[in-house]
Specification:
By secondary structure, the chain is α+β, with helices and mostly antiparallel strands. It has helices at about 15-20, 40-50; strands at about 30-35, 55-60. A two-stranded parallel sheet has the order 1-2. Strand 1 (about 30-35), helix 2 and strand 2 form a beta-alpha-beta unit. The radius of gyration is 12 Å and the shape is globular. The N and C termini lie far apart (about 25 Å).
Length: about 60
């Protein structure tokens, strides 16, 4: 399953786990957040995705460059 093009209602927890295990790095349309940001971080990411081609934010996953 391609979680970038699938409707959100069709994506399962296992789909997200499988995607994260692939080790895909953050980029123009992918951002990982270890914790749900309390101030500032999430709004900027959502805004940048909304002003471009969209994207995927996965919360609860540490970005390991």
């Amino acid at each position: 399953m391609n979680i970038f093009s699938s409707p959100i209602k069709d994506i399962t927890y296992q789909d997200v786990v499988s995607f994260c295990q692939q080790g895909i790095s953050e980029g123009l349309n992918l951002d990982y957040k270890q914790d749900f940001p309390s101030t500032g971080g999430l709004e900027k990411t959502i805004s940048s995705f909304a002003n471009s081609f969209g994207g995927l934010i996965i919360i609860g996953v540490e970005d390991k460059d």
